[in-house]
Amino acid sequence: MILGIDIDSCGRCLHYHNENDIAALLCDHCKKYYACFKCHDELCDHPFAPVCIRNTQPVMCGQCKNYLTYEQYQQHHCPFCQANFNPRCELHQHIYFRP
Ligand SMILES: [Zn+2]
Ligand SMILES: [Zn+2]
Ligand SMILES: [Zn+2]
Known about the structure:
Elements: E1 2-3, E2 23-26, E3 33-34, H1 37-43, E4 51-52, E5 59-61, E6 67-68, H2 70-73, H3 93-96, E7 97-98
Parallel strand pairs: 1-3, 4-7
Antiparallel strand pairs: 2-3, 2-5, 5-6
One zinc ion binds next to loops.
């Protein structure tokens, strides 16, 4: 399940809704998948907590709902359904992941 504001069936949200904005990110504090950190921070009482890159399921593909490792997510496309992810999410790398 992907949480967020105005999310569609693939996990696009109010803030990020381009064709390839479909990766959902895990918050290490509440352990839930959110469409983006802005959605998370508006809906939760704590800031988005970055997840360790060694976590086995830090990302969920919004199209096929499979869980991805950090390494799989870094390929910028889903290994299960081949959907492309937005490479510009790397701008927010430090918000979503920690070493
Ligand atoms: Zn959280
Ligand atoms: Zn959002
Ligand atoms: Zn997929």
